[in-house]
Design brief:
The structure is a homodimer. Chain A is built from ten helices and 13 strands. Chain A is an alpha+beta fold. Chain A folds into two domains: 137 residues, 60s Ribosomal Protein L30, Chain: A, CATH 3.30.1330.10; 162 residues, PurM-like C-terminal domain (Phosphoribosyl-aminoimidazole Synthetase, Chain A, domain 2). A seven-stranded mixed sheet of chain A has the order 8-10-7-11-9-12-13. Chain A has a six-stranded mixed sheet with strand order 1-2-3-6-4-5, with helices on one face. In chain A, helix 3 links the parallel strand 4 and strand 5. In chain A, helix 2 packs parallel to helix 6.
Chain lengths: 324, 324
């Protein structure tokens, strides 16, 4: 059974009875929404596992802690939720150095402070690997709606924030074992180590946006999540994708395909969102680092207008689908 | 650094700034309480890790899933919170059998249904071991207060629900590799496999109780948590501890010290609580399986009146302190 089938089978087990789907619960987005109170709660969980999501050699422990928190917090940005609290379930491998662990906690605390999250509790367990499982909670302001993946409409514009493919390039730099050889490689490495959850951007976009997702699995795969949830298709323009200056040269230096890295590279934690063209001015006036990269159409597919001007269905990439 | 020191060092890092301790947050109990809304939220996280908390040979996968959820839900009982939602962060080891995993999810779903919790989200990751990290949320009813560890007063009675030491005996039966040889051994094995979070009991006790904790680390250690949080001491009477019929004989058959197992055995997930003597009648009229086992006094220690009638400070047992 592949990951997709497994997650569907798990979900089926957890919502077997109609009463499991209470009207105050929204499932299956970047986070669950519990609507029982004036300010609905948003809940999400994310794991950062040694040997899977990081190796201790990849970065100083402060950075590993920092990115573990940010990866979880990113879902709050995608939902335009106000950050509230975080809980850390920490698994410690035998022989883990105390100073290393505490430095990791320092970075984790820095990321929480930078995201407006309070770390209110946790759990410590032994285990074969170090892992950090973070639950984040947020609130939808009274009277507002959370952003979801399901609201994209035909004719909407498609945007992405920041730059795409940067974390994947950064990880390749780190894995190469050599120091970054260009400004782009250096920026990419820094982005992998210290991503930022786009919480303020999500909140600022809320009035204008029809759907949103955070980029964790890669641009095409996350775009496909939104398209599927909204029952629409996307046409994205490859040459419109925002990449860092020198990105393609830095990819080439590492024998990494630049376009594929931009389209499929995961863990950027930027926002992909859709908005009606009527809001172009309002979105531009936010002064945010967002780029229009395509439009929503009716065919149920994510097509990419390639460098030769021809639209192609490139597939979503066999990324690891890890969240439900 | 031992676990105690590590957890304190972690906590210090997460509440370094005074603004981290917002007035709407209560930390350091069985769960955090966020008081921002009419019905305060209760949040807790608990991990169940292969090779640490269970082995696959210990029980059918349904039971391993069942107890992972119940261990997390138990904190809601201790706080007298109404169960709301659960999130499951699942780590899957390479080669884990699909049918085994799905059976585990079945048991997890059963425990959620039995606890009144909806599984609203989760995360799947690869890892070296199977682990289930569960976040639970609950609500304190409008106008009510959650039970805490800090309210025990000198002169209060001390109670425990159910039977103590049963899970530890059950685990010894399971580890022995032989089938249970007595009714008590069988009951103990069943209790380890299918503990029940005392959620309804916690809610029923709320009007009468001055402090409460769930028994995860062992009776003496959890009693010491309450005593310390409340700034009081306990005198517990060893012969008053409720044990299952045949418990001591079943312990002896496994060369397990019966009294120490009752005092130190963890993972019973029963409630230890204190209440003023004026509420004895009201508590008795609940018809619940609770037993008075001692009283609260002023000396800052947990003393046990032993079988010879003499009170002794037995120490808390070097249990694994895993939650903060």
């Amino acid at each position: 059974m592949d990951e997709f089938a497994l997650i569907e089978a798990l979900q089926a087990r957890f919502t077997r009875d109609p009463s499991d789907l209470a009207p105050w619960i929204d499932l299956g987005d970047d986070a669950a929404v519990l609507r029982g109170d004036p300010r609905p709660s948003v809940l999400s969980v994310d794991a950062s596992v040694e040997g899977v999501h990081f190796e201790r050699t990849f970065a100083p422990p402060e950075d590993l802690g920092y990115r573990a928190l940010m990866a979880a917090a990113s879902d709050l940005g995608a939902m335009a939720a106000e950050p509230e609290a975080a809980l850390l379930a920490l698994t410690i491998a035998p022989g883990t150095d105390d100073a290393w662990l505490l430095a990791m906690a320092d970075g984790y605390a820095q990321a929480a402070a930078a995201s407006g999250l309070r770390v209110v509790g946790g759990n410590v367990s032994r285990g074969a690997q170090v892992s950090l499982t973070t639950t984040v909670t947020g609130r939808v302001p009274s009277g507002a709606s959370p952003l979801t993946r399901a609201g994209a409409r035909v004719g909407d514009d498609v945007y992405v924030s920041g730059r795409v493919g940067l974390a994947a390039l950064g990880l390749a730099v780190i894995r190469s074992g050599s120091p970054p050889r260009s400004a782009a490689a250096q920026e990419a490495q820094a982005h992998w180590r210290r991503p930022r959850a786009r919480i303020a951007l999500g909140a600022a976009l809320r009035p204008y946006v029809s759907s949103a997702v955070d980029l964790s699995d890669g641009l095409l795969q996350d775009a496909a999540h939104v398209a599927r949830a909204s029952g629409v298709g996307f046409e994205l323009v490859l040459t419109a994708l925002p990449t860092a200056p020198g990105f393609h040269a830095a990819c080439e230096a590492l024998e990494l395909p630049g376009d594929a890295t931009a389209l499929h590279g995961g863990e950027d934690y930027e926002l992909l969102f859709t908005a009606p063209p009527a809001h172009r001015g309002a979105i531009a006036s936010l002064g945010a680092d967002v780029t229009r990269i395509g439009c929503v159409w009716s065919a149920p597919d994510v097509m990419v207008v390639c460098r030769d001007g021809k639209p192609r269905a490139l597939g979503e990439h066999a990324g690891f689908r890890h969240r439900w």
